[in-house]
Amino acid sequence: MRLAFFGDIVGKTGRRAVEMHLPDLRKRLGLDFVVVNAENAAAGFGTTEKICNQLFDLGVDVLTLGNHAWDQREALTYIEREPRLLRPANYPVGSTPGAGANLYDLPDGRRVLVINAMGNLFMETLDDPFAAVERELSAAPLGTVADAVILDFHGEATSEKTAMGVFCDGRASLVVGTHTHVPTSDTRILPGGTAYQTDAGMCGDYDSVIGMDKEEPLRRFTTRMRTARFEPATGEATLSGVFVETDDATGLATRCEPIRIGGQLSEHIPA
Questions:
Q1: Inter-CA distances, 156 with 24, 179, 198, 214, Å
Q2: Which residue numbers are catalytic?
């Protein structure tokens, strides 16, 4: 199976990068399934039903969220109606709308489990992410129930993300981090066969401070004063993500490469 995951879409310019590049990339790489983190898609804060539908129309199969999941109030009700939109699985069970994982059927009968979880280090504290991921992996094991498993681990600390990769090794096709918006250069396949990258990067303008117009973040760092709202940068965005090819028999990764197209970063498109 050929899978792709793309990091946090930041505002309109990030959505434009998906629109410009994903349809062609899906054909070029023969992608079977595409997951994108959309928690910053609506002007940098959350997402909306309209934006999600636009992304689905462009060839995205599943959207994940993170600490900005509820910044747009409509997400609280929309997520109950849209199984292709996931929030972190370690929100309190029984009291949070939506789901943190789901099993998706491909037209050929293969099934992909997608899990969204959020780290606790330097983040809003939720339930134990390792216990939440264990629960979802046990419910739909790779190679028996699921033909592929993708985990978006939304977190700040590289140590916590790396630990999650080790925790899932051999039980997931891909574990990839989001939230810090900078693509890491540790794209690899772990010893047990799980593809891993600490952060996928963002779909956004890198002439910025992690996707936001530079002026206000710089002012806050230098003066400690909040004088304006963060606004997404509006230059050309880079589409940043990870490409994974899996073994049909095991669901484990046989190939893993970064994807970077457009914008300011050096380009890398898997052959």
A1: 32, 7, 10, 20
A2: 68
Bridge partners for 64 per DSSP: 37, 86
Q: If DSSP states are collapsed to H, E and C, what string results for 190-222?
A: CCCCCEEECCCCEEECCCCECCECCHHHHHHHH
C-beta separation of 1 from 245 below 8 A: yes
223 pLDDT higher than 90: yes
How far is the C-alpha of 45 from the C-alpha of 41, rounded, in Å? 7
Question: Which parts of 1-70 fold into alpha helices (H)?
Answer: 11-29, 49-57
Count of positions (residues) in the chain: 271
User: How does pLDDT run across 47-78, given as a tens digit for each residue?
Assistant: 999 999 999 999 999 999 999 999 999 999 99
Q: What is the span of the domain harbouring residue 217?
A: 2-261
Number of folded domains in the chain?
1
Query: Model's pTM, two decimal places?
Result: 0.97
Counting residues of the chain whose pLDDT is more than 90, the rounded percentage is: 98
- Token pair, residue 119, equals 């780290």
For residue 255, being part of any structural domain is answered with yes
Separation between Cα atoms, residue 141 and residue 62, nearest integer Å? 19
The vertex-33 CA angle with 184 and 135, nearest 5°, equals 75
Range with lowest mean pLDDT among 16-20, 224-228, 249-253, 256-260? 224-228
Residue 69's domain is classified under what CATH number?
3.60.21.10
The four Cα atoms 90, 93, 95, 98 give a dihedral, to 10 degrees, of 70
pLDDT digits (tens, 9 = 90+) for 234-246: 999 999 999 999 9
